[in-house]
Amino acid sequence: MLLFILCFLVYPLGGLLCRAFFVSGRFSLAYFVVLLTTPGTLELFLRSLNLALLVTAISALIALPLAFALSRYVFPLKGFFQFAVLWPMILPPFVGAIGIRRVLARFGPLNLLLMNSRLIDKPLDFLGAAPFLAVAVTEALHLFPVLCLYVASALGRIDSSLEDAASNAGATPWARFRRITWPLILPGCFAGACLVFIGSLTDLGTPLVFDYTALIAVKIFNQVDEMHVNPLGYALVVMLLAATLLVFVLAKALMPQGTAAEGQKGNAPFVPRKLGIVSGLTVSLLLLALLAIAILPHLAVLLTSFAESWFMSVLPFAYTLGHYLEVVNHPLTARSLKNSLFLSFGSTLVCLLFGTMMGYLIARNRGPLGRLLEGLSMVPLAVPGIVLAFAYLGAFADTCFDPRRNPFPLLVFGYAIRRLPFMVRAAAAGFETSSIVLEEAAQSVGAGRSKTFMRITLPLTYPYIMAGGILCFSFAMLEVSESLLLAMEERFYPLSKAMYALLGRPDGPFVAAALGVSGMLVVGLCLLAARRLLGKKFGEVFGV
C-alpha cells in the first residue's frame, strides 16, 4: 500500500516540487518571483479564487435549505427529492456547460422566451457579457449536492435532546437554530464548502467549454506543450497545489473531534416532523423549483442529444436518435466509450484492492500505522486532477509509463489514486460496523486470519465495499482533468477528451451531448446503487 502511494502520488509530486524550487541543482524561488512579477499572473490567480468563492456561495444558497428540509421534515414527494438531489452529480460541469451554452446563446431558448414574453426587445449576450458568472453557475449546479450531503449528514448526527432542552427553556425556533443547530453543523458545512471550493478552483473543463481562459487551471493546461522548455509551468502548478492544500488543512484543523453533533452512543436521534397539507405542498413546490434550476444543464444536454435541428426556437424543431447511433458507430465515440469502461474498471479494481486493505487497517489498528494510513489515504482529496496529471507528465517522461506513448497505465493509476479516499471511507465504515467479537470467536475455534476475513468479515462489510467500488467506477467514467492532459492521441481518448474534441465539429455538440447522456446513465445508476447500499453514510464518504 505504501509503495503504491509512494510511486503514484509522492514521487510525481516530489518531482513537481523539485522542478519548481530547484534551479541548476540549487534551491531557489526564482521561478516564483518571475511568475508573480509577470503582468496578469497574480490577477489570474485572484480571479480563480474569486470564482471558487462565488461557486461556494451559490452552492450554499441551494444546499442549505435543501438539506434542512430533507433532514427535518416529512412532506409529499420527500423520497423523490432525496433521490433527485443526486442528479446533478451524475454529470460533470464540463458536460453540463455544453447544455448551458446552448440555453444562454444569443438566439437560444432563454433569450427567445424573454423576447416572446416582451420582457426584452433584442437578445442579450449572456456568454459574452458575463462568462465568469456562467462558469460559476454551471459549476455550482454540479457541486452543491456534495455540500448538501455533508450538511444533511451533520444534521442527522445532532442529539435532538439538546434542541428539546432549548425548546423547553422557551427558545424560539430561530434562537434554537442560531444557538444550538448552526454551531453543531458548522464544521460539516465548512468541510463540505472546502470540497466545493477545491472542486471549483481546479475545474478545467467548464472554462474550456465557455472559452473563458482567464483562470489558473486553463493557464496550466496551456503550459503542457512547453513544460520541458518553460519551467514556469511547474511553479504555477505548485501555487495551485499550495492553495488546495491550505484549504484542505484548514478543513481538517477546524473539524472538531467528538462533538455532540457526531451522535454519541445513547443520544436521541431527531425524528422528522410531518408537515400539514398546505405547508407540505408549499415546501414540495419550492424544492421542485429549486431542483428544476439545478438540473437545467441535464435537461439542456438531454434535449441537445435528441435534437435534429435546434436554432431560433425555444425547443428543437425535430428529434432524432441519429446522434446516439453515431455514438455507437463513429470510431472516435465508440472507441472512447470502450476506453472509459476499460479505464474505469481497471482503476476500480486497484481501488478495491488497496482501499479495502487500508480501510481494514484503519478500522482495526488505532495506533500510529492506522493514523498514518488514514492521513495518506485522504491526501488525494487535496491534490487536484490537473496537478496530478501535470506531475505525471514530468515524472514519467521517457519511461515505460510515458503517457505520450500509452497513457492507459497512468490513467488507471491516476483515476485510482484520486478515488482512493472514497473507497477507504466506505470500507472503513463497513469494518467499523462489523463486530470484532465475531472475528475473535472464529479465531478461537481454529480459523486463521485469512479464513476469518473471507468467511466472517468480508460478508458483513460487502455492501460497503461494493458501494465504494461503485462510486470509484462512476467518478472515473467522466473524469475530466487527467483525461484532457494525459490522453494525447485520438485512439486513447476517454469519454471526456472525445467530447472536448467533438466540440470543434459542426454537429459536434449534438454528438457530444449524446455521448454525455450515455455516460450520465451509467453514472446515475452507479450512484443510485451506492446510495441504496450505504444509506445514511453515503454523505460521509465525501468527507475530508
Structure, described:
The protein is mainly alpha-helical and 544 residues long. It has two domains: 200 residues, MetI-like fold (Orthogonal Bundle); 229 residues, MetI-like (MetI-like fold), CATH 1.10.3720. The chain is built from 25 helices and six strands. The chain has a two-stranded antiparallel sheet with strand order 1-2. Strands 3-4 form a two-stranded parallel ribbon. α12 packs antiparallel against α13, α15 crosses α25 and α16 crosses α25. About 2% of the residues have low confidence.
Question: What are its keywords?
Answer:
544 residues; mainly alpha; MetI-like fold; 2 domains; two-stranded antiparallel ribbon; two-stranded parallel sheet; 25 helices; 6 strands; 71% helix
Write the layout of secondary structure elements.
Blueprint: H1 2-21, E1 22-23, E2 26-27, H2 30-37, H3 41-72, E3 73-74, H4 78-84, H5 93-103, H6 109-116, H7 126-129, H8 131-156, H9 160-168, H10 173-201, H11 205-209, H12 216-223, H13 232-253, E4 273-274, H14 277-294, H15 296-306, E5 307-309, E6 318-319, H16 322-329, H17 331-364, H18 368-378, H19 385-395, H20 408-433, H21 436-444, H22 449-477, H23 481-486, H24 495-502, H25 508-534
Parallel strand pairs: 3-4
Antiparallel strand pairs: 1-2, 5-6
